[in-house]
Amino acid sequence: MSHLQNLLLDTLLGTKHVDSAALIKLQERSLCVASPGFSLMPSDIRRLVNGFAKNPLQTRREGLYFKEKDYKCVRADEYSLYAKNENTGVIVVKTHLYLLVATYTEGMYPSVCVEATEKLGEYLRKKGS
After folding, report:
1. Segment 67-112, tens digit of pLDDT
2. How far apart, in whole angstroms, are the C-alpha atoms of residue 115 and residue 79?
3. Rg of the chain taking only CA atoms, in angstroms
4. CA angle at residue 58 from 40 to 92, to 5 degrees?
5. Measured distance CA(46)–CA(79) in Å, rounded
6. How many Cβ atoms from other residues are within 10 Å of residue 111's Cβ?
């Protein structure tokens, strides 16, 4: 198992408030690593990357279509995108090289998912990743 995959499993899934997680390489627009059983289609990757390429206000207004669901965007800025659909959500944090993606499901605390994802994103930015 790679160092990056261990980071995802330990720091995100280890909280028990992240259902699945992945790292997307920004330049290549491709999946780098993901938690077991979590797959992202090229169209999902493209939508996430484009969510940051657009004006954050536009992304916030339009929402996010991810994994065949429409999500209401509750935060969109230079480094973070948060979106929810009923009791599920997706948190996306941008670093220099990656998009860090984490999802939560019903029964999980979104705030814990956000905090863990943002902290890992900050760690990766400090490492230059």
Report:
1. 999 999 999 999 999 999 999 999 999 999 999 999 999 999 999 9
2. 14
3. 13
4. 35
5. 17
6. 10
